[in-house]
Write a structure and sequence with these properties.
With 161 residues, this protein is of the alpha+beta class. The chain has a single domain, classed as PK beta-barrel domain-like (M1 Pyruvate Kinase, Domain 3), CATH 2.40.33. It is built from four helices and eleven strands, in the order αβββββαβββααβββ. Strands 1-6-5-9-8-7-11 form a seven-stranded mixed barrel. The chain has a three-stranded antiparallel β-sheet with strand order 4-3-10, with no helix packed on it. A hairpin with a 2-residue loop joins strand 7 and strand 8.
């Protein structure tokens, strides 16, 4: 068996992920609204979410489902996805491995633009040490390259170059 190149390794995933939670915030400071589907738009991110940036680099925030268990363990409490203020909760794929990848969820295509670091609100939301617990577990930011409807249960598939 021949060895794979680094380029090939970076595009090889054991399986697809799954979208298991969607949340949007209409305005700054508002509580997250949990929805079953949302329209991803290349100009404005998720329709119904407060995102209004010009660069597109933070249109959508994604959190890895498996990190909830890590956070719950460190903080000794149950954590509902909406209190972490991310838009999409993804199960079964390493989100950090999406660097330099395009990926599809439902009918929309996204590209990772960077890490989604925690903000100081996590200390108040999660309690003492909440900010430091979130470090390294805050998820990623993404830009919508091609719009479309995304729904709970949609597969997260990595698009090959």
């Amino acid at each position: 068996m021949s060895q794979l190149s680094l380029s090939q390794l970076l595009q090889t995933f054991p399986n697809s992920g799954e979208l298991i939670w969607i949340g949007v915030r209409p305005s700054k400071g508002d509580a997250m609204i949990v929805v079953d589907e949302v329209l991803a738009d290349a100009r404005s991110g998720l329709i119904g979410d407060r995102y209004n940036g010009n660069s597109g680099r933070r249109q959508v925030t994604l959190l890895q489902y498996e990190h909830l268990a890590v956070l719950e363990s460190m903080l000794n409490q149950s954590i509902a996805p909406e209190i972490l203020r991310r838009n999409l909760l993804i199960k079964g794929v390493n989100l950090l491995a999406l660097k330099n990848c395009k990926f599809k969820i439902g009918a929309a295509i996204f590209q990772m633009t960077g890490l989604c670091h925690p903000c100081s609100k996590m200390e108040k939301t999660l309690g003492p040490g909440g900010y430091n617990s979130m470090r390294g577990h805050g998820g990623i930011n993404a830009q919508v390259l091609q719009g479309g409807i995304i729904r709970l249960g949609d597969q997260v598939t990595i698009l090959k170059d």
